[in-house]
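Translate sequence into structure tokens.
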Amino acid sequence: QVQLVESGGGLVQPGGSLRLSCAASGNIFSINSMGWYRQAPGKQRELVASITSRSVTNYADSVKGRFTISKNNAVFYTVYLQMNSLKPEDTAVYYCRTFTRDNMNYWGKGTLVTVSS
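Result follows.
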């Protein structure tokens, strides 16, 4: 199993920045990819960005050029989401998710990001 713990959420003004962290523990050597998802009130959970073990990244169109996903090294100990130029519509609970090589997936409990003046 893999355990995920997100941190770094909070209240930020429009145009501001935040960096989210997702710390993985447990069977981290089984991780194939990790991603950040978000769920705004009344909306479905959506993929924000993902990164593979070979550092191939993918972004939702709504965050391209503003958000950057990265990981600390070749092993998935920690994954980051740098969020710049934040907009009120980025307000959501942000979740970390991982996919393992044995086709399992795990979620963190989420961290709230609020973009408001």
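Note: The first strand starts at residue 2 and ends at 7.
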